[in-house]
């Protein structure tokens, strides 16, 4: 086959990218493409932007870096903007491509777009092939069919760890053959309907998008500082760069793959020894897989007020004043306020913080949890549809929590995890 398109989405990397490798092996030349989907920059029915400025800034950096890395291999990145079902067929026609290679989606809207594109390509006699590239365990290697995946994480994890193996990562291509690709032409934040948000100097870390930065971060966290060896003890921290891996932002856009991280953990263990902490990072990556597979299983249910539960739940109303106070760190709890300010001013919040502010939203403010999830969707740099809506549903008691309804005692959490008030002082003084 002569020419193929590689349509990049949330797989902005050249390492361990099966889609790219398969396209290269089946074609004489390839055209790497990224499409800014207009719908990603709209306002949702919850009144928040689908993508806020922190994440968009990170995305622009990631695309610039992908273009750089592709050019080093002989190619480059074509940028388009609009509706993918219009823009991708246009590129196919322009380059006379016979096939489109693309990452497979799990969530509803993304699958709908994929189907629309597929239908248009069919009319152009252009094939489309999708690849599952964002999980640690490949969906085909799971010891259950998607509909039989256990709803309880521990049951899913134990059987998967016992019966499935993690595939080896694909090596990055040695060379890519492409026609001359025009100079990268990215839209600006303003063109995407957003304004630049200055990063607060108190940010735990300055996230910079791109595969190069992701690998740099991994080397820092693993081999330079050996923080991986103490991850289990520090992961509930809230202040600073190294209490946790901070891989989530790069994972969300696919600047790094979980299989690549796993492979590096194995190398690290050979060099510095395995312990509970080195395993625990894998354990957390399995949580990430779990929510993705749950999305495959339950599809649109995670967006319903009653989540994946079958019993009827009466939905709660929204109080604009309480929502405003929660977003702007003006609630009755200083611990919640500090966390919410961090999110507003940096686009990031620790896992401990997320659990508490979500529990507070559902249990203390007693509001429809989906508004909280939608605000996170706008604000988080690491927003990932399955991890976000899956965790929110879990905390709202309508997801995968076997205990039903988890209730965090916020005062106790604050004194357990911010005993010296270091975190609260950082954000509230
Ligand atoms: C209400 C709520 C919303 C969340 N929304 C998101 C989201 O949109 N995107 C996102 O990536 N994570 C989300 N998380 C999960 C988790 O909080 C973040 O992944 C983590 O805080 C990111 O920091 P880290 O990379 O330093 O994590 P680490 O502690 O270093 O963990 C390593 C990796 O494991 C995965 N992981 C860890 N915890 C979880 C978890 N509970 N669920 C799924 N994956 C996990 C992530 O990929 C993370 O990067 C959410 C959690 C809650 C409670």
Number of domains: 3
Structural class: alpha/beta
How big a fraction of the residues is strand?
A: 5-15%
Radius of gyration, CA atoms, in whole angstroms:
22 Å
Would you identify the CATH architecture of the largest domain? 3-Layer(aba) Sandwich
Q: Provide the CATH top-level class of the largest domain.
A: Alpha Beta
Number of strands: 5
In CATH terms, what is the fold-level topology of the largest domain?
A: Rossmann fold
Question: What global shape is seen?
Answer: globular
Say which molecules are bound, naming each kind only once.
flavin-adenine dinucleotide
Instruction: Estimate the helix proportion, in percent.
Output: 40-55%
Compressed to H and E, one letter per element, the order equals EHEHEHEHEHHHHHHHHHHHHH
- Give the terminus-to-terminus CA distance: 62 Å
Uncertain stretches: none
Mean pLDDT, all residues: 96
Side-by-side strand order of the widest sheet: 3-2-1-4-5
CATH homologous superfamily descriptor of the largest domain: HUPs
Count of DSSP helices? 17
Taking the sheet with the most strands, its summary is: 5 strands, parallel
Describe this structure in words.
The chain is of the alpha/beta class. The protein has 3 domains: 1-133, HUPs (Rossmann fold, 3-Layer(aba) Sandwich); 134-167 and 211-298, Serine Threonine Protein Phosphatase 5, Tetratricopeptide repeat (Alpha Horseshoe), CATH 1.25.40.80; 304-428, DNA Cyclobutane Dipyrimidine Photolyase, subunit A, domain 3. The chain is 47% helix and 7% strand. It contains 17 helices and 5 strands. The protein has helices spanning 18-26, 53-72, 84-95, 108-123, 153-163, 211-224, 231-234, 248-252, 258-272, 276-298, 320-327, 334-346, 351-364, 369-379, 385-396, 410-417, 422-428; strands at 3-8, 29-37, 78-82, 99-103, 127-131. The chain has a 5-stranded parallel sheet, with helices on both faces. Helix 9 runs antiparallel to helix 10 (276-298), helix 12 (334-346) crosses helix 13 (351-364) and helix 14 (369-379) packs antiparallel against helix 15. The chain starts with a strand and ends with a helix. Flavin-adenine dinucleotide (FAD) is lined by residues 235, 244-248, 251-252, 281, 284-285, 287-288, 291, 350-351, 354-355, 358, 376, 380, 382-384, 387-388, 391-392, 395.
């Amino acid at each position: 086959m002569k020419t193929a398109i590689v349509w990049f989405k949330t797989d902005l990397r050249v390492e361990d990218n099966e889609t790219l490798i398969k396209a290269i092996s089946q074609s004489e030349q390839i055209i790497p493409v990224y499409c800014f989907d207009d719908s990603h920059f709209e306002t949702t029915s919850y009144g928040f932007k689908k993508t806020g400025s922190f994440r968009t800034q990170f995305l622009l950096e990631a695309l610039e870096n992908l273009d750089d890395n592709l050019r080093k291999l002989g190619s480059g990145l074509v940028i388009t903007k609009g509706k993918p079902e219009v823009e991708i067929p246009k590129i196919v026609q322009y380059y006379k491509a016979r096939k489109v290679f693309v990452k497979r989606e799990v969530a509803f809207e993304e699958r709908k777009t994929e189907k629309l594109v597929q239908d248009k390509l069919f009319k152009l006699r252009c094939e489309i092939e999708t690849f599952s590239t964002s999980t640690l365990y490949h969906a085909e290697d799971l010891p259950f069919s998607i509909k039989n995946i256990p709803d309880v994480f521990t049951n899913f994890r134990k059987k998967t760890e016992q019966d499935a193996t993690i595939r080896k990562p694909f090596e990055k291509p040695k060379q890519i053959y492409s026609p001359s690709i025009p100079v990268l032409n990215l839209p600006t934040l303003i063109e995407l309907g957003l304004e630049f948000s200055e990063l607060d100097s108190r940010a735990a870390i300055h996230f910079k998008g791109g595969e190069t930065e992701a690998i740099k971060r991994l080397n820092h966290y693993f081999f330079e500082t050996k923080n991986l060896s103490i991850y289990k003890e520090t992961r509930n921290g809230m202040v600073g760069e190294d209490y946790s891996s901070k891989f989530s932002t790069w994972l969300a856009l696919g600047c790094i793959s979980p299989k690549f991280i796993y492979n590096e953990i194995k190398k690290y263990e050979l060099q510095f020894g395995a312990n509970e902490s080195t395993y625990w990072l894998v354990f957390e990556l399995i949580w990430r897989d779990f929510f993705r597979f749950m999305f495959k299983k339950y599809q649109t249910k995670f967006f319903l007020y009653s989540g994946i539960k079958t019993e009827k739940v009466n939905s709660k109303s929204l109080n604009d004043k309480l929502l405003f106070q929660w977003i702007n760190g003006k609630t009755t709890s200083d611990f919640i306020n500090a966390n919410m300010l961090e999110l507003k001013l940096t686009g990031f919040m620790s896992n401990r913080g997320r659990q508490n502010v979500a529990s507070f939203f559902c249990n203390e403010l007693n509001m429809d949890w989906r508004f909280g999830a939608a605000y996170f969707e706008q604000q988080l740099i690491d927003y990932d549809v399955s991890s976000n809506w899956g965790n929110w549903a879990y905390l709202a008691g309508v997801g995968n929590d076997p205990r039903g309804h988890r209730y965090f005692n916020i005062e106790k959490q604050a004194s357990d995890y911010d005993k010296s008030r270091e975190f609260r002082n950082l954000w509230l003084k």
